[in-house]
Amino acid sequence: MSTQTSEKRPAVRGTTILSIVLMGLFLVLGLSQVWLNIERVDLAYKVSVLESQLTAQRELDDKLEVERNNLASPQRLRALAKDFGLGPAHSGQVRRIAQ
User: Fold this and answer.
1) Across 2-6, 10-14, 95-99, which has the greatest mean pLDDT?
2) C or N: which end of the chain has fewer Cβ atoms within 10 Å?
3) Residue 90 covered by a domain
4) Given this model, what pLDDT does residue 33 score?
């Protein structure tokens, strides 16, 4: 009877240790999975914020381009020149500098 008990104990002990190790491994893997999902959500949020900023910058760029085109339009420049009493340059008023 004592031989049966001593033979069963190492098998039970080995099974118990293996079960504990496997549970620990599954716990670590589960926590790693949760952490990775949290990181994925954080990165998705950051990407969303950056996409919004990029869209806003592109819209601002488009508005500024329209404003620049309006300010540099030949009709506007002619009207401003007329208001300030400017006209086409006469001969001798333009000097060219060699490069």
Assistant:
1) 95-99
2) C
3) no
4) 98
Structure tokens, 95: 């000097």
Q: What is the Cα–Cα distance from 75 to 81, expressed in whole angstroms?
A: 10
For residue 30, CA distances in Å to 15, 19, 34, 91 come to: 22, 16, 6, 85
In the chain, the number of structural domains is 1
Helix (H/G/I), strand (E/B), else coil: 6: helix
Q: H or E element: which one contains 74?
A: helix 74-83
Rounded CA-CA distance 99/95 in Å is 13
Hey, what are 73's tokens? 């339009």
Give a yes or no: residue 15 inside a domain: yes
